[in-house]
Amino acid sequence: MQNYPTSESKILLDKPQILIVDDDRKTFELFKIALENKYELTFCSNELEIFEQINFPFSAAIINIKLETKNEFKTIQEIKNKNINIPIIFHSDYKDSINTIIIKNEYKPFAYVIKEENFNKLLDTLESAVQYFQQINQNLVLAQTLDKLEHNYRDLVENSPDIIFSLDENWRLISINESVTQILRYPVKEILNKTILNLEFKLNNPTSGILEKKLQELTLSQNTISFNCDLVTKFGEPKEMHLKLRYVNQKNGHTFFGTATTNEEDILLRICESESQIYKLGNYLTHVDIITQRLANYSSKYCTPEILMNLKLCIRELIINAMEHGNLGISFEEKSESLMNGTYIELLIKRQRNKTHADKQITVEYSLTPKRIEVKITDEGEGFDHQKMLSRSINQLDDNILGHGRGIALVKNYIDSIVYNEKGNSVHIIKNFI
How far is CA 305 from CA 17, 40, 371, 399, in A? Predict the structure, then answer.
């Protein structure tokens, strides 16, 4: 047996290691001259030496096959037991076609090369075998890595405190993690394949329908959207959540990936006694939702849940009016027609992108004390006939058009004071808590 180099140094070398089994000295020398610059070689001349060497991480093996003894076939299985993927090249003097076919079928070598053939053929075959082995190892490492990543991903999703879900094109839940059971009390199997719209709280909820509107908006924008929404628990109770949805293109269509996060109590909310703020909003529903929720959260410590719900609705409606009719110039007739035709979101996006309206902002001035909340909303539009609108009652509104035209009438019924400037592009409301 001849080893190049010693076993201690083999582990530190980067060259592929090749096991060569042959008792012909001339073959040893030939392999040494041809291969030692490219590979690390281990030569064995008998079965015992092979068993001593097969723990090395060989990239390929070349074995001289002798049909009269067949001892080498016993060691081939041992080598395979150590590493089933190692490519073994049979190198033999025997070229009988029948025996060759039998050997190939029974032992399945990487290749069977006749010694009398051109030696370059063996070298080319060895190179292919090493490349094959390296590719197999890379695939195994990749598979192990992917398996680990998949395990970590599953662990991350399942142990997340947030609800993580995906929807098909029809907004049906195709996956959702166990957090939905912890937060909303639904077993996963109970809500899979059902539309996510079933999870929106609708009973006596003036803001119901926002989830469908946001999904429609996301389908058109094909981007990412976030908003607050009241979801419903298995027991029929509302649970306010912050939803973030992302549109995902796929070969055969699209899906939606989303998270629903519980709105945690802000420490500033608990310690705030009174405050005054001025906000500048863009003409986006997401901005409207965020500021409405912010004002409502800070008012919650001073009023009942019923008053808070109505206050939140009134503020949202007035800001939306400032955005739609004020800054974006959407007339009542245009909004009515778009709502009837299901093209409201398209109209909204078109106006948002129009240069005439894009830079206009909504100013929200806000003051809160334990006694009252005051909100002043000003847009950059042309104003409107607020006297005519204030003269209408909520019963005169068309209930078939969700949300259309009812903002001012709702404010008139639920808010203690509502005053417009002469132009009609600024409104000042007051809600007394005591």
Answer: 75, 79, 16, 24
CA–CA separation, 148 vs 143, rounded Å? Answer: 8
Buried b (16+ CB within 10 A) or exposed e, 206-225: bbbebbebbbbbbeeeeeeb
Q: For 369-416, where are the E strands, in sequence order? A: 372-378
Report whether 41 contacts 20 (CB < 8 A).
Answer: yes
SS3 305: helix
306-357 pLDDT per residue, tens: 888 889 989 998 999 999 999 999 988 888 888 888 888 888 888 888 888 8
d(CA 109, CA 306): 80
Look at the chain and count its residues: 434
The Cα–Cα gap between 327 and 359 comes to: 9
Segment holding 230, helix H or strand E: strand 224-232
List C-alpha distances in Å: 25 to 7, 21, 143, 390: 21, 11, 42, 108
Span 242-290, pLDDT tens digits: 999 999 988 788 999 999 987 655 556 777 889 999 999 888 887 888 8
Those residues with Cβ within 8 angstroms of residue 288's Cβ, 6 or more apart along the chain or in another chain? 281, 316, 319, 320, 323
Instruction: Measure CA 224 to chain center.
Output: 11
CB 376 within 8 A of CB 415: no
